[in-house]
Design a protein that fits this description.
The structure holds two protein chains of two kinds. Chain A is an all-alpha fold. Chain A has nine helices and no strands. The longest helix of chain B has 31 residues. The chains are: A mainly alpha, B mainly alpha.
């Protein structure tokens, strides 16, 4: 287990070694954090790569009192949102429906040899992607990344109380969607 | 109707990460940071010889100037549209596309500068 203070010390003394340690510790959670939002593997891989390049270059501008994990997730979130924003621009120009496109992406990315139980996990992803982007983000950070509301506030820039409210609204909407679709 | 219970589900994803993905990410990142900075080190502004010289200071102020000029031009264009009451349907999407294109045209240092400036604002694109 590599601690954040080990990574910060390495980034300060030997940046190339520091970023390598940061990737050992964080590349997998960052990849999944991004992939939950963008769905597509290649987009997630590109955005993860870009995240670590940005983290390396911007390390000196990081606030010393900030939480390293939160800073990493903030940059990763920005990269994921950049991809989503670019898609929306493309969709506007193509006059297509982004909701349908995202549903198609989720189906395409499903594990080919998915077990029976994975169908419900796919439906959960569809429920999450029906939420507004900010609620999706808050839900994912709380549910999957198991962040505190204070950490979510640091990553998203919204107050911790709003993050808490957002999570509960998101959870309620997901529960309603899943209940309605389970009954069919 | 039984209410769905989120806590009853495992927290795994129904997608697969192809084998070797993380290794490929690490390789590509190391390659990119090595290419852009020679020995792989970040430029240290405080220790950089250029930053300590008048030329170094000029580099930073020119970057600021370029950014502020760009921001002022964009604000002036938006103000003009508001004042003249012109609201063509394509304004929102073409402005986003212009910003994307303008950002892509910036050099790495300028892109990094803007990213550093806005890194705490994940919703700026949304």
């Amino acid at each position: 287990m590599i601690s954040d203070s080990d990574i910060i010390a390495a980034m300060t003394q030997a940046p190339a070694e520091g970023i390598r340690l940061m990737m050992v510790q964080y590349s997998e959670p960052v990849y999944w954090h991004i992939r939950r939002m963008v769905v597509d593997h290649e987009d997630a891989q590109d955005a993860t790569q870009e995240t670590f390049v940005r983290l390396f270059r911007a390390f000196d501008t990081r606030r010393d009192d900030g939480n390293l994990r939160c800073w990493i997730y903030t940059v990763a979130t920005h990269e994921a949102l950049r991809i989503i924003g670019r898609r929306r621009t493309d969709v506007v120009s193509l006059d297509d429906d982004e909701g349908e496109a995202q549903a198609g992406r989720i189906a395409d990315e499903a594990i080919d040899d998915a077990a029976e139980g994975d169908a419900i996990l796919l439906r959960l992803q569809q429920a999450i992607h029906r939420l507004p982007t900010k609620q999706q983000l808050v839900f994912n950070l709380r549910y999957y990344s198991e962040m505190s509301y204070d950490e979510i506030a640091q990553v998203t820039g919204i107050p911790a109380t709003s993050a808490k409210a957002s999570f509960h609204v998101a959870k309620q909407k997901i529960t309603e969607y899943m209940t309605a679709h389970e009954a069919r | 109707m039984t209410e769905f219970n989120l806590d009853s589900l495992p927290k795994r994803m129904p997608y697969r990460m192809p084998e070797g993905t993380l290794e490929q990410i690490e390789r590509n990142v190391m390659l990119r940071i090595g290419e852009s900075k020679g020995d792989g080190r970040r430029p240290d502004v405080a220790a950089s010889p250029t930053a300590a010289t008048p030329g170094g200071a000029r580099t930073i102020s020119l970057r600021w100037r370029r950014w502020t000029e760009w921001a002022v031009s964009a604000a002036a264009a938006v103000a003009a549209v508001c004042v003249l009451g012109l609201r063509p349907a394509s304004v929102a999407s073409s402005t986003e596309a212009d910003v994307e294109a303008a950002f892509a045209n910036l050099c790495d240092d300028d892109q990094d500068f803007l990213i550093a400036l806005y890194q705490d604002d994940p919703f700026m694109d949304n």
